[in-house]
TrEMBL record:
It holds the Pfam family HTH_3. GO terms for molecular function: DNA binding. CDD domains: HTH_XRE. Residues 1-46 form the HTH cro/C1-type domain. This is XRE family transcriptional regulator.
Length: 52
């Protein structure tokens, strides 16, 4: 999925998503949930948190 599409689905600015992808910015819990939902995965799947 392109950053442009992900931005449209989540409402998160494309530049912020790009910085987060490169490790230059973080995403808050709400934005992590939005990204996970748009990608069809759980938040744990896109973070370094262990699954319970």
């Amino acid at each position: 999925m392109s950053l442009r599409t992900l931005s449209a689905k989540t409402g998160i600015h494309r530049g912020h998503l790009s910085r987060a992808e490169r490790g230059l910015a973080g995403l808050g819990d709400d934005n992590i949930r939005k990204v996970a939902e748009a990608l069809g995965v759980t938040p744990a799947d896109i973070t370094h948190e262990e699954k319970s």
